[in-house]
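Appendix B, Record 12. Input sequence as logged:
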Amino acid sequence: MKGSVLCMMGILATGAEAGCPQGQETFTSCQIAGHDTEVFVCFDNQTVTYSYGPIGGPADLTLSEPIERVNFEPWSGLGTAISESVTFFNQDYGYSVGGGFERPFSEEEMQRTQTRFGWVEVTENGERVASLECIPETVTYGFGGGLHDAKLAAGQTWDWVSKTWISDAVSSASMPILVTTRQYGVEFDCLPTSEFSLNGIRMSASLDALSTLGTPMATDETSFSDEPIDRLALTGASIDFSRGDLITMSATSPTWQMPSGLRVGLTRGEVVRILGRVPAGYTAISQDFTIPSCPEMPDANSADGYGKWFALIEFGQDKRVSKIALVTSAQ
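Logged structural output:
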């Protein structure tokens, strides 16, 4: 049963044997305890691949990710063992493969045969549905260099706080995008109102101003105030109106972005880098951030503009932004 889960929702191989594609080297591999199956994670300077199937036979499942996007977690530097893992995602499923060995701490331990271990874990929507162990003597895993160096060569840096990789191309703003404001003696983090747009379409845009994009269609949904919602569906985004007023803009594609560069596909660490810090009330590993707009008036006790809009940034199980929604509080 567990073995079959490893192949669910996957991409079936075309008769290729489980193992490393030509030109790739092994990050880790092993035979699965209690099953006549084996798993391989292989890589070169562009691609990382996963294959699982019967020992010496055609792979039942193969997956691949570009070096830049693959979810590789390096060794933390802590504990009595060294281990690393790679996770591949396919629709709602995640396939995590890890390898490691016990660290020798004395000359006597160095003379002993190295104790190796490995595992395969499958999740569905972030919930574990299968956990398999490797037969220790079949584990291949080489710590140092390898996949870690390939990620560095691709222009990425590992961030221990968010547990994600940050592209060197995502630069920190000279001033933090997040602003701390005070309302009635309480401090809040907020975003400038200038950030509340997607590809230049501002939350203050009128229906008439967006007429060239198409005509909104009626939906079965209603706003918080039970008003009907009309939706303008675009490629990778949608804009909702209620009684002719724009109330929500949502993006599910990286082709749509906010003025600061916030967009779908960024890692949690990259989002925090652009914001300048983790929003108050959240951590660097939170599953979402909800950030209000800043007051438009300098008076610290004026509510004008504060919370007029909200930016909702959601992260998927791959630790990347899956959706950005800009929402008005006056629905």
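The first helix runs from residue 2 to 5.
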